[in-house]
Design goal:
Length: 221
């Protein structure tokens, strides 16, 4: 598992993550132990680093989530995304699509997998890349935070003014990594908090304003 997990990281990210190799090896061992004890880890091992399909130099927007959906059929390694055709939609994604339409005046152009966002350089990264099936934040004590911080620092090195969406208090803890003028933040889109500042926050038009101001292509949300 140790070699396999490292090998699943796209080569464009391996150089920056080499400093975290011991943490990745520790997570590999924790994954092995979880599997041996019968605990179902999500997402599937081949999707743990799925968000890194976007090369660092191609990242134009960071959307930071907390941890994968705890439902195995939902978690695909991309923050907030689920497999195309999933029914019913998780509440967070349903609220995100609702806000896209309210904010932009048009229904989202993305399907549930958010692939069209990824193809435009949106990095859909969680602050913890695994959890246990049925358990929210089940791997919060695993050494994911250092790995994710390393990834985000590298993105900022490559693109100092990368537009960044921070939803919820957990994501806001990473705000110091980014240019303050490039951050859009609000409450989390979860049904538990969306009405307390997410709905009506216009994150998508605000991000496009940041991109346009930096002479970057805007996102078709």
């Amino acid at each position: 598992m140790t070699t396999a997990l490292w090998d699943s990281i796209p080569t464009t990210w391996q150089n920056c993550l080499s400093q975290c190799r011991s943490d990745i090896d520790e997570i590999s061992n924790l994954l092995d132990k979880a599997n041996q004890s019968g605990n179902h880890v999500v997402p599937a091992s081949e999707n743990i680093f799925a968000a890194l399909a976007v090369a660092p130099s191609d990242v134009s927007v960071v959307i930071l989530g907390q941890d994968p959906y705890p439902t195995p059929s939902h978690a695909i390694g991309l923050a907030f995304a689920v497999p195309t055709g999933t029914q019913p939609l998780p509440g967070s994604l349903r609220n995100i699509f609702k806000e896209v339409e309210s904010d932009t005046g048009q229904p989202t152009t993305a399907d549930y997998s958010l692939k069209t966002w990824v193809d435009q350089g949106v990095l859909l990264l969680n602050t913890s890349l695994t959890t246990e099936s049925g358990v929210r934040a089940g791997h919060a004590t695993w050494p994911w935070e250092q790995i994710v911080q390393t990834l985000l620092k590298h993105v900022v090195e490559v693109n100092p003014k990368v537009a960044t969406i921070l939803w919820g208090n957990h994501a806001k803890q990473f705000a110091s990594l980014f240019d303050p003028e490039s951050i859009v933040e609000s409450a989390h889109p979860s049904p538990l908090s969306a009405s307390r500042g997410f709905l009506g926050s216009k994150p998508f038009s605000r991000v496009n304003s940041i991109l346009a101001g930096n002479q970057k292509p805007v996102i078709s949300w």
